[in-house]
Amino acid sequence: MSESLPPPTSTQAYCNISALESGFIELPQELYVTNNSDPQAVISAPSLSFLLKHSEIQSNFLFDLGIRKDWENYPPMVVDLIRKKFPVCITQDVVESLAKGEISPLDIQDVCLSHCHFDHVGDTKPFVRSTFLVGAGTSALLDSGYPTNPRSTIASEILPISRTKFLEPTGWSSLGPFPRALDFHGDGSLYIVDSPGHIAGHITILARTSSDGSWIYLAGDSVHHWDLITGESDIEVLPHRVHKCAHEDKKAAEEHILRIRALCKLPRVQIILAHDESWYKSNKGMPVFWPGKIQSL
């Protein structure tokens, strides 16, 4: 498996990528990193969504939906988590962010969810024409979701099954440091990357942003802090939690983080985390947000 990314063709298609505000969530840092010097430290992290517009066919591809404004309508266990552990603030949801560039949910061809945690699934109901794309492992989580399991944090009804594709990564090709990726449009412009560790079905996006070799990697919840990518910290172990850390499979998460670290070393690659507080602070109010776009390296 080569760690370099495929070079562009002479007529290379790419994606214009715009960030979308879709709520904020308070994240206690003691849950994520080992070098946290302040056990009381909490960051108000964005829950970012992204609009990817294909350069040729102009299709609208949405990655993640953030947090829904009426969060009281999440499953009861989620509502309890928000009230007691992870407070949220949604001044602008993903639909309102899209409207700033005169796009409505009816204009979105594909909605790809990195995974089905509440701060990424938003409210799927307005997207009545969209095809939903999720990792194959999501299916079992929905089957055992709320209300079948009243203690589940995942609502079994969040996806319109007739318009949902459960993407099975078996047989996907390698892409740079990643062993399994799907060339979504078939032209090398946008890849869906199998990204195990955080939760079953977790997927991320690696997309070209120019015709001459620029890329952006949208990392979802592969990692919650940049110190984990740089190696300045390790994933915090939480003995009192069922999964012992913020990821269901710590070993798989660590292996995937190493692949992201390798990606960082490649030229002209930007990496944005779903809860990238530092990136948000540096870019707040800038035209990286729709209707602007993130400039290529």
TrEMBL record:
The keyword Cytoplasm belongs to this UniProt entry's keyword annotation: no
Pfam families, alphabetized: Lactamase_B
Protein name (Swiss-Prot/TrEMBL): Metallo-hydrolase/oxidoreductase
Record keywords, A-Z: Hydrolase, Metal-binding, Zinc
Ranges of residues in domain Metallo-beta-lactamase: 46-275
Organism: Collybia nuda
SUPFAM superfamilies hit by this protein: Metallo-hydrolase/oxidoreductase
Keyword Zinc: yes
